[in-house]
Each structure stands twice: as structure tokens, then as C-alpha cells.
Write a structure and sequence with these properties.
Helix content: under 10%
Strand order of the largest sheet: 6-7-8-9
Largest sheet: 4 strands, antiparallel
């Protein structure tokens, strides 16, 4: 049997592991993980974009950014200003899009890109 996907927090000094949240069995948990510039917030896509305060032991109850559909293929956070970039691969055969949100989850803009956008790199990283 397959184990349900889950989010774990590791203490880097003691190497103790703590399960923070278990997702539903059979659910799709994306591996699209990103942190902000100060590395105190973990962002990930699981149906929507979630923001998790790494000092917390409690999983958030609502997503930061509501998304619909399944073609979100990449996630990045600009370390300079906290803007969140989401890659939408659309149908994986035609041009995709990038959605840009503020760190507080407000949509700033959206623009067309090439086929299957997935990764982000930021100047100064």
C-alpha cells in the first residue's frame, strides 16, 4: 500500500522529525516547494497555493491563493520582494502562463509564456 502524502518538519540540530500535516490518501501532493527570501515561510501547491510559517506546528486552515484546475507546474518566490510566481502549463502542448501574486496573496498580473513553464530563477539568487 502507498502511504498518504504528508508534510514533515525536521529539527536540524536534533534531527527529530515531526509530522505537521497528512494529506488525504490518494491525493496529489505537488513537489513544487519554495521559500521566501528570509526562509521563514514555505509555499507549496496542493490544489491551491499554501503558505506555512516554518516556526509553527499548526498547518494553515485556508490556502493563501485559491487555484482551480490541475495544470500548475511550477512555483517560485522572489527573494527580493516576496512576489509569488505560479507557472500554469495549461494543456502542456500550447503556450502557458505565469500568474504573479503579492506575498499577501493579491493577484498582480498574468502573462503568456512558452510551452510547459516550470522553473523560476531570480536575479541575485
Amino acid at each position: 500500500t502507498m502511504e498518504a502524502p504528508s508534510l514533515w518538519k525536521l529539527n536540524t540540530e536534533s534531527l527529530e522529525a515531526q509530522k505537521v500535516h497528512e494529506f488525504a490518501q490518494g491525493s496529489y501532493f505537488s513537489s513544487h516547494l519554495a521559500t521566501n527570501g528570509t526562509a521563514d515561510t514555505l509555499y507549496f501547491i496542493n490544489g491551491s497555493v499554501w503558505a506555512f510559517d516554518v516556526s509553527s506546528d499548526t498547518f494553515p486552515t485556508t490556502p493563501l491563493i485559491e487555484l482551480s484546475g490541475w495544470s500548475y507546474y511550477g512555483l517560485g518566490v522572489d527573494p527580493n520582494n516576496g512576489d509569488i510566481y505560479i507557472a500554469d502549463a495549461k494543456d502542456y502542448m500550447s503556450d502557458g502562463a505565469v500568474l504573479r501574486y503579492s506575498a499577501s496573496g493579491e493577484k498582480l498580473d498574468e502573462f503568456a509564456v512558452g510551452i510547459c513553464p516550470s522553473k523560476f530563477a531570480f536575479h541575485g539568487e
